[in-house]
Amino acid sequence: MKRFSVLTAVLALALSFPAGAKTIQASSFGIKSDGVTLNTRSIQKGIDFLSENGGGVLEFSVGRYLTGSVYLKSNVELRLLEGAVLVGSTNPYDYEMVEGNYSLLLAKGQKNISVKGKGVIDGRGFDCALNFLNQVHLGFIEDTTKNDRVTKRPKIIYFRECENVGIEGISLRNSAEWTLVTDQCENLTISGILMDSKNYWNNDGIDIVDCRHVLIKDSFIDASDDAICFKSHSAAHLCEDIEVRNCVARSSASGFKFGTVSRGGFKNIRIINNKVFDTHRSAVTIQSVDGGEIENILVDSLEAVNTSNAIYLRTGLRWNNGKKGYLRDVTLSNIRVEVPAGKADAGYSYEGPVEDLPRNISPAGIVGIPDIPIENITLRNVEIVYPGGGNKMYAYRGTSPEELDAIPEMIDVYPEFSQFKELPAWGLFIRHAKGITFDNVRLVAAEKDYRPAVVADDVQGFVIKDLKTDEQGAAKGKKQVVKRNVR
Fold first, then answer.
1. pTM, whole model, 2 decimals?
2. Which CATH topology does 1-225 take?
3. Which residue of 12, 38, 157, 287 shows the fewest CB atoms closer than 10 Å?
C-alpha cells in the first residue's frame, strides 16, 4: 500500500507563516467580546489586513465574539486562546455561501491557512436551523426537499480548493449542519480537536471531500450523523493518501464511512488505532455505488463498543452516470466490535431513525452486485460479539437456493447495512465477491440464533485460514458456515 508522508503535510504547515509574522489582537480591529455585538465586518477586516500585509495571526483572548460568515485568507491563522468563543449568529441572513455551502468560516482557493488554539467555535445550530426553517415557512427561503429540515444550513467550517490547511486544538460545537468540511483541499492536518455536534439533523462530524494528503489525529468526534466521512462529490477527483489515527468517534449514523457520495473514489487510506462507541449504524462502512474507484484501504486496531453493525462493504449503481466503479484491496485487521441487542444511540438528542424492519440483528456484510463484485478483502484478527437471539417468528430468511435467490439485489438504492431487512446469517453475509480471506476471525453470539454464523453466496476464492464460531445454546453439530456457488 502506498503511504502518504505525514511529514510532507507537517512541513508544509510549519512553513506556512514566514518568520516574524504578525500577531495582532482581535480587539485592535474593534472586535468586541461581549457576545452581543455583531463582529462580522471587523473580523473580516482583521483577516484581510493580515493577508494583504504578508500574513500573520489574528488572536482572540477570553470572551464571546458574535459573528456571521467570514472568509479566511492566505497566510492567516485564526487563534482562539483558552476561554475565547467564536459565536455563530442565529440570523440566516448573516451567512454567505461558497459553492452552495453556507458556513461560519469560509475559504476558497487559499493557501497556508489555519484555525488553532484551545478556544471554541459555537455554531448555535439548533436556534439557527429553526430560524432557517421559519424563513422557509414564511416563503423567504426555498427548501426544495420540503422535509422540514432545510437542506441548506450553515456549517462551522467549509474550506474549498485550499492548500496547506491546519485545524488544531479547537472545540467545534453545535453546528446547524455538517460541522467541518474540506472539499478538494491538499495538505491538510486536523489534530487534537473536540467536536460536539448532535443538536440537529444530519450533523456530520468531519467530512473529507475529494482531498489529498490528509492527516487526522488525536481527536474526539460526537455527531448526530456520520462521525468521520470520506466523500467524493466529483467524478474527476478522489480522496487519496489519508491517515486517521488515535481518534474516538460516536455517531447516530456510522463511525467511519466511505461514501456516500462516491463518484470519484477513495485510494490509499489508513484508519489506525481508533475507537467507536454508541453508534447507530456501522463502525466501518465502505461503499462504491456512484461509480467510485476504491482500493488500498487499511483499517487496523479498531475497537467498537455498542455499535449496531460492525462492517458493511457495498457496491452498486445509484448515481453512477453509466460508470462502473469498484471496491477492492481492503484489509480489516485487529478489530473487535460489540453489537448490542437494543438501539445503540438510544437517549441521544437526535437518534438515528429506526428503519428496514422487520429484521433481527443484522450481520456484518460484504455485499457486491453481479456486475461489480467486491474483490480482495482480508479479515485478520477480527472478533465480533453479537447478542444473538434471532427469532424466525419475527423475521425469517432461509439458506435454500430459492430463499437466497429471493434476497433482492437493490443495486440502485441508498446503501445501508439494514437495507435487505432480514439476512440469513447472524455473523457475516457475503455475496458477489472475489478473493475473501478469513485469518483468525471469531464470531460470538450470546444467545441462540436460528441462522448460521456465515453465509457465502457467489464467492470466488474464499479462503478460511482460521474461523471460530461460538453460539451459546446452539444445537450440537449445527452447521455454522453455509456456502453456495463458492469456488
1. 0.95
2. Pectate Lyase C-like (2.160.20)
3. 38
